[in-house]
Design a protein that fits this description.
Blueprint lengths: L5 E2 L9 E6 L2 E6 L35 E3 L11 E2 L7 E2 L2 E2 L1 E3 L12
Antiparallel strand pairs: 1-2, 2-3, 4-8, 5-8, 6-7
Length: 110
């Protein structure tokens, strides 16, 4: 995903969670962020909470996504470079995410 989410890769909090800076707030995402198809932002990202826009279970908050290897991803919608963990690398390359891999729609980038 792209910024405003940024994670501190070196710090871990209790219960295997990593703190991320989102909209100038520290937010905990699970340590296995992006490892499988899941609506990772729903209820975690400040804009994906009740009373916010798009809000809990709405818009991009409700869409499943995962990290992918863009070199082995043959989809009509190309994966996007992630800003969540900017220093993280997979096989020497930055992380990429995809909603299409999970059957979701990329409403986040729009």
């Amino acid at each position: 995903k792209k910024s405003p989410k940024k994670a501190n890769k070196s710090k871990k909090t209790k219960k295997g969670k990593k703190p991320s800076k989102v909209l100038a707030k520290v937010v905990s995402y699970p340590a296995d962020l992006g490892a499988r198809c899941e609506a990772w932002d729903n209820g975690r990202h400040p804009l994906c909470k009740e009373g916010q826009t798009p809000g809990f279970s709405n818009g991009w908050c409700s869409q499943q996504w995962c990290f992918v290897d863009p070199c082995n991803c043959q989809l009509p919608v190309l994966p996007k470079m992630s800003g969540y963990i900017p220093d993280a690398r997979y096989r020497g390359k930055p992380l990429f995410y995809s909603y299409a891999t999970c059957g979701g729609e990329d409403m986040y980038s729009k």
